[in-house]
Amino acid sequence: MMENIVEMPKEQLIGTVQKMMSEGYRFVTATCVDNGNETLDVIYHFDKEYELINYRLTVGKDEEIPSISKIYFGAFLVENEMKELFGLKITDIVIDYGGHLLLSDDELDAPMAKRQIVIEKKGEKQNA
């Protein structure tokens, strides 16, 4: 179980991140989790004096969220990674690799995203 986690609506993302910067927090990383339904959790991890604070944002897989890379420049790497591996829609990343930070054109789109697989068996469909 993760400690020091605060739920945050996406409308508060930029304001919260700006507040963390102004209060001297270091951006550690962000984590993306596919909830297995139509939502993703994005957890932003911040540190100050060895205390982690985590902000969780739950968004629909079709929703866009703004990049925090204009506030914490280094976030562009993890944002590109989440965008590419999970299909998270992030806008205005300061350096956007357009889906090719880790994957080539031959790779599966969003390979870390959970997918429902349908198996057809002699005229019947089964969900796996």
TrEMBL record:
<dbReference type="InterPro" id="IPR037232">
    <property type="entry name" value="NADH_quin_OxRdtase_su_C/D-like"/>
</dbReference>
<dbReference type="InterPro" id="IPR012179">
    <property type="entry name" value="NiFe-hyd_3_EchD"/>
</dbReference>
<dbReference type="InterPro" id="IPR001268">
    <property type="entry name" value="NADH_UbQ_OxRdtase_30kDa_su"/>
</dbReference>
<dbReference type="Pfam" id="PF00329">
    <property type="entry name" value="Complex1_30kDa"/>
</dbReference>
<feature type="domain" description="NADH:ubiquinone oxidoreductase 30kDa subunit">
    <location>
        <begin position="7"/>
        <end position="92"/>
    </location>
</feature>
<dbReference type="GO" id="GO:0008137">
    <property type="term" value="F:NADH dehydrogenase (ubiquinone) activity"/>
</dbReference>
<protein>
    <recommendedName>
        <fullName>NADH:ubiquinone oxidoreductase 30kDa subunit domain-containing protein</fullName>
    </recommendedName>
</protein>
